[in-house]
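Dear V.,

Thank you for sending over the compound details. I've combined the ligand you provided, fe (ii) ion, with the protein sequence from our construct and run the structure prediction for the complex. I'm sharing the raw inputs here so there's no ambiguity about protonation or stereochemistry in the SMILES, which I know was a concern on your side last time.
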Amino acid sequence: MNLKKIPYRASHTVMKGAMKILKMPVPSTLVGPGMVKRFPEIIKECKIRKILVVTDKPLMNLGLLDSFLNAVKNNQMEYVIYDGVQPNPTFENIKEGLLLYKQSDCDAVVAFGGGSSLDCAKIIAARVTNDKPIEKMKGLFKIGHKLPPYFAIPTTAGTGSEATIAAVITNSTNHEKFAINDPKLVPLAAVLDPELTLGLPPSLTAHTGMDALTHAIEAYIGWYDTPFVREKALSATQTIINDLEAVCKNGSDLGLRRNMLVASYEAGVAFTRAYVGYVHAIAHNLGGFYGVPHGFANAVTLPHVLEFSKKNAAKKLADLARFAGVGDPAESDNILTMHFIQKIKEMNKNMGIPSTIDALQIKDIPELSARILKEANPTYPVPRIMDYNDCVNLLSNLITPQHL
Ligand SMILES: [Fe+2]
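Below is the predicted structure of the protein with fe (ii) ion bound, written out as structure tokens.
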């Protein structure tokens, strides 16, 4: 092993031990079509009087919340709505939501929407009981006090935020985007209702689904895997490999939509315990540099990073292939790994996802590589550690040919 990589592996070994001891809650789930109407019965069991519902304006305008809000009233609870969540939630969003919570004398928070609404609601709830600046919550375990009851209703199948300890927030003053990680941010319960995802267009379905697949694969092949992580990651991978293309073609299939919501949740349960890897480090930085959407960046980058990692991850990639039914299970690990990566490339192609990033510019590769490695090394417990030249080579392969 390269001498520079030894401290990274030492850090991974220490953290792996710590992650095994750390207790992380698993939210209970209510799964199935129409279950969003039953969710208030679960919320009511926590003796809730008045809910702050955190969402965005497009979902409000679509009327997607109507059946849930009616059911809240029918269960003799009140609600107020904060629908100002932006695609990248800001400090302002937290301030406005928190003010509404306090002025309205709420005693619970329900997030309704995609990852942005779920993350925003988590931080609003954290601020209810933790009177400290949001910047001071950055990092790991910075939330001192327990949150008020917090529940999640995802309307996309990808981020897995309904199962994770993380919330991402942007400081719009200095444009810094950072994560707050604490087991207290895990919701008490989540509803996985496929009727809420019926309206997602094929491209968004594909990108969010590939984000979930990346969570599952990066959790599985990383060093922090445990039997529980492996079980959830295998199950999520199997579902996404087998159902994602079909649901992109037939978005009104409730069974497939349900499967994708469950897979996204399982992948969330897995990666919140085992972290992610270079695909995410690259996607985060492509997002920061050019605004490339997260799921799309993950989808394009995933096969490239697996090609780089396969030398040290063939056994696990072959496991994933066997479990997902890719290739002949009797084939060698190396051959199955090749089939597995090929399968992901084919899925991308069939869903209209390219193999390169159009926005990526050659001149930015040195700066991007430095930022990617700063994010990933040693935080992400990847199977094969990347150095600067490896990263430059990988990013060069992501350049669209006409930009060369
Ligand atoms: Fe992700």
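A first observation: The chain has two domains: 3-20+200-403, 32-197.

Warm regards,
I. M.
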